[in-house]
Amino acid sequence: MSDSKIQKPYPDVPQQPNFPEIERRILDCWRRDGTFERSVEGRPAGEAGENEFVFYDGPPFANGLPHFGHLLTGFVKDIVPRYQTLRGRRVERRFGWDCHGLPV
Questions:
Q1: What are the DSSP calls for 46-70, one per residue?
Q2: Is the residue at 60 inside a domain?
Q3: In a domain, 59, yes or no
Q4: pLDDT at position 22
Q5: CA torsion 20→25→26→32, rounded to 10°?
Q6: How far is Cα 14 from Cα 4, in angstroms, rounded to an integer?
Q7: How many separate domains does the chain show?
Q8: 55 - beta bridge partners?
Q9: What does the record list as coiled-coil region(s) (predicted)?
Q10: Which of 24, 52, 78, 82 has its CA 20 to 30 A from that of 89?
Q11: 72 is a domain residue
């Protein structure tokens, strides 16, 4: 059976997708539609900020050159604000201080 006779479930999806091009189109669409801004506006802070969640993140490589451990902690630190966002809270991510107490 030739490839031309095989029915594909999603004929518009190329077999060799160009991921950088797909990402560019998606980001352009999000910019044009204001997707991120609308998602933040859709989560009100509430009276006296009771629906806000502020996540302070420290510098990524305060203890030497980047290594696998930095990836692991980066993933873990990303879970907390994402979980709070999924719960409907307005989440702000702020970078904290370096190991000497100086602003980063």
A1: -GGGTTEEEEEE--TTTTSS--HHH
A2: yes
A3: yes
A4: 94
A5: 140
A6: 14
A7: 1
A8: 93
A9: none
A10: 24
A11: yes
